[in-house]
Amino acid sequence: MKEKKIKMKGFYKTTFLIGLGFFTMGLMDPLYDSFVPLFLKKYTESLGVIGTIMTLDNIFAIFLIPIVAALSDRTMTRIGRRMPYIIVTLPMTAIFFAMIPFSAAHSLWLLILVIFFLNAFKQAARGPVVALMPDIIPGEYRSEANGVINTMGGIAAIVGTIGLAKLFDISVDLPIIGNTHSKLPFMISSLLVIIAVILLFSFVKERDAIKHTEETKEKVKTFSALEKIFTSSDKSAIFILMALFCWFMAYQGILPFLSIYSVEKIGVTEGTAGMGPGFVAIAYALFAIPSGIIGHKIGRKRLIKICLIALSTIILLMFFHHPLCRALNFSTKAELFTFWGMLFLFGIFWGSVVTNSFPMLWQMATYSDMGIYTGSYYFFSQGAAILAPILFGGLSQALGIKAMFIIASIFMALAFVMISFVKRGDANDKPLPADIPELD
């Protein structure tokens, strides 16, 4: 027992170091989503144009993450197979991220060009960064490890939105940089990304670490791995991909419209309305690690099914929340706080689903095709991120904004049905026999 605890402690340390890659993503994403539309608005009033440019990251993600993740599966170098991609793409991401406010001050076309390259490098980095953890951490500990990583991403999002975002308005003239207005959050974030890459490369020796896992020497071709997913007699991988598509449709369908709902129905200011998603992020960060531990103890599939029932119920309660508050004569403040409370509960169960679903998919993979499974996860989740706002926006326009809660609740229920057909993926399920590939 003592030896097992020591071993788990060692994996937590390794996971924390690997999580530095996730921390960088969590740091940049909220700043990008918050400020890039403001930069674009200086050049165009068209929300359609702004929205199209802002979807570049999702478009790049749906193609680049699966391709680069699969490519890294077949890459063998002296520093590992994921690390060569990480040490190139993440620093380039940092450079282009720092360039955003400078390009915005110059011209719209330069800003668009920087956004293009930023998203290309950022999404190319995501697959190898995500796949690095299941390469090194044994299947039985991946729920806990994914909890650590998601917590780091959540903390980074809080740091970015609450901490660094406040530096946006600071205006000081400095040598070389010039006036700091709008630049500091991007420059500091980029510096932190570079530091994170240096630490990750210095302390996580991918080649040495993978020698201790139970994987494969065989190189698997991309199409062979995809064929394994979609033609296997065991359809667990397909059903979990369909399930995650459904729950991401629900999540991505309501998240962009929460602020509009809060303004139109609850009656708060735009600034106050923008705080709503933050309660989801805080709950996500607080409960990611505990949910990984619980998933290991009671079973990942079982916990996800419980959470999907809870999520479907909470979203349905959101539909009745406004008329109920009016019937009970709640003040605007009381209605807002109870709504935020539901968002916090939503974040707890949502974080539990995300923390345990990725390890379920990884449990079905071998070392040789880990990147393929990782890429498949992002193909389905990013596909939902592209489709959901369009579908939910159109239906909410026709039926009223509250309709999004009914639609999302239905998608969560569909996800429950899909996950019920999954037969593998828990910590005790063994992957196919496999060994580590030999490195020259």
Tell me how many strands there are: 2
Q: Would you tell me which CATH topology of the largest domain applies?
A: Growth Hormone, Chain: A
In terms of quaternary structure, what is this? single chain
Largest sheet: 2 strands, antiparallel
What are the secondary-structure elements, in order, as H or E? HHHHHHEEHHHHHHHHHHH
Overall residue-averaged pLDDT value: 80
Sequence stretches where pLDDT stays below 50 over 5 or more residues:
1-6, 212-223, 432-440
| CATH top level label of the largest domain | Mainly Alpha
- How many helix segments? 17
Rg, rounded, reads 22 Å
Helix content: over 70%
Structural class: mainly alpha
Please tell me what the overall shape is.
globular
Strand content: under 5%
Strand order of the largest sheet: 1-2
Write a brief structural summary:
The protein has 440 residues and is mainly α. The chain folds into two domains: 1-214, MFS general substrate transporter like domains (Growth Hormone, Chain: A), CATH 1.20.1250.20; 218-425, Growth Hormone, Chain: A (Up-down Bundle), CATH 1.20.1250.20. It contains 17 helices and two strands.
